[in-house]
Amino acid sequence: MPEFSIQSSVDIARRLEIRGSDSRSWVVLLLPSGSSDTALRNLLGDLSSLLQRPTRVFDLRSSSFEKLSEILHEPEDDIVVLVAKTNLDTERWSALDLMRSGLERKGPIILWLSPDCVPNLSEQAPNIRSFVGGSIFYVGPDGGLMSEADRQKRLAELVQFYGLSNKEVVNRAQAKTLPSEPHFVEWLVLLGRGDLV
């Protein structure tokens, strides 16, 4: 199996943020060793915090693909995480691949997979694999924990992009003149001022 880079769930959320709200992105995240449930909770928290969009989770082992195709479009712009903690059998991968057109949507799809799923994904679901492209990553051991350096870096990015200081953002939030855009919500949370959201 090829080597894939390690990314934190914060990095994944940022990648999706950069791609935009109508990106039709497909990403594969390979479960970390240890508590994949904790890592998944961290991912969901980071996605919600940074992207300010609802996130839904579906189990690929038990979901009917026909039903899945329906519910992915109601709505079709939220974030969907499709989970397979153990490998799917060949028939299920092939069936998923045949449904690929019905799975296309505006919002991102994240495949939360066991690493042993990658060979079957590539061999039995080549069209899905082509949607994913190079976006296959191991989830880093730090999960969703943002380090102080990451927090400061993100704050600096926001300051540079919007041309506002952290103090100005807080002052505008207190005066109720700060736009309610997701980036400003994130900014306040990163400053420890979630009370102003």
Distance between the ends: 45 Å
Q: Radius of gyration from the CA trace?
A: 18 Å
Q: What sort of overall outline do the alpha carbons produce when their principal axes are compared?
A: elongated
Number of domains: 2
Average residue pLDDT? 82
| CATH architecture name of the largest domain | 3-Layer(aba) Sandwich
Q: Sheet bearing the most strands, described?
A: 6 strands, parallel
Tags for this model:
2 domains, 14% strand, single chain, 6 strands, 48% helix, Rossmann fold, alpha/beta, 10 helices, 6-stranded parallel beta sheet, 197 residues
Description:
It is a single chain. The chain has 10 helices and 6 strands, in the order E-H-E-H-E-H-E-H-H-E-H-H-E-H-H-H. It is α/β, with parallel strands linked by helices and 197 residues long. It has 2 domains: 6-139, Rossmann fold; 148-191, no CATH class. It has a 6-stranded parallel β-sheet with strand order 1-6-2-5-4-3. Helix 3 links the parallel strand 3 and strand 4. Helix 1 runs parallel beside helix 2. The termini are far apart.
